[in-house]
Amino acid sequence: DVKVTQSSRYLVKRTGEKVFLECVQDMDHENMFWYRQDPGLGLRLIYFSYDVKMKEKGDIPEGYSVSREKKERFSLILESASTNQTSMYLCASSLWLASYEQYFGPGTRLTVT
Amino acid sequence: QKEVEQNSGPLSVPEGAIASLNCTYSDRGSQSFFWYRQYSGKSPELIMFIYSNGDKEDGRFTAQLNKASQYVSLLIRDSQPSDSATYLCAPTGFQKLVFGTGTRLLVSP
Prior knowledge:
The structure holds 2 protein chains of 2 kinds. Helices cover 0% and strands 53% of the residues of chain A. By secondary structure, chain A is mainly β. In chain B, the strands form 2 sheets. In chain B, strands 2, 4, 5, 9, 10 and 11 form a 6-stranded mixed sheet that branches. In chain B, strands 1-3-8-7-6 form a 5-stranded antiparallel sheet, with no helix packed on it. In chain B, a hairpin with a 6-residue loop joins strand 4 (33-38) and strand 5 (45-50). The model of chain B has no long low-confidence stretch (mean pLDDT 93). The chains are: A mainly beta, B mainly beta. The interface between A and B is medium-sized, with 21 and 19 residues.
């Protein structure tokens, strides 16, 4: 079974802090993704990566950056957290193309106060 | 027009009934279609995918695809209370999946 893990289930940060969200997958998947999920807005793609050190912007990249130094690990960085970044953050991975079936981690509920 | 349209629900069905979940999409280039189930407070889990027009059955689940009408549906036969969740439709887009906001299904005992 594919296993995608995320570093924290719940996180509370203050406005202006730099926030790191970590994601690790154990199935040698090429592609990894970061989404945020908000009520009424569904899942929105922030960034994805199709290879080590490669990244592509998704639909809402503003205020975020990512890092993929190793194939199994994909990090989401909030350079200066703001209250409108309070959300559920979900990491996913897929074997081949970005449009192939994706497997999700458990999510991180981030609250920025 | 949204890229993916789903009725937010809730769709309420009694235990044992057939639940029918519908999804329309705008990108005629979409080739594959995925259905995810998401329990409250949990992450989405893949339950089915379909590539070709017609029906695809997997246990109590049947996915139906009509590319000409840009319509995909998920039927759940013999619905169980444990099927109560939000169901997300996700057609493929360029380099990514495009998720609908989901339909909430409630199955009452």
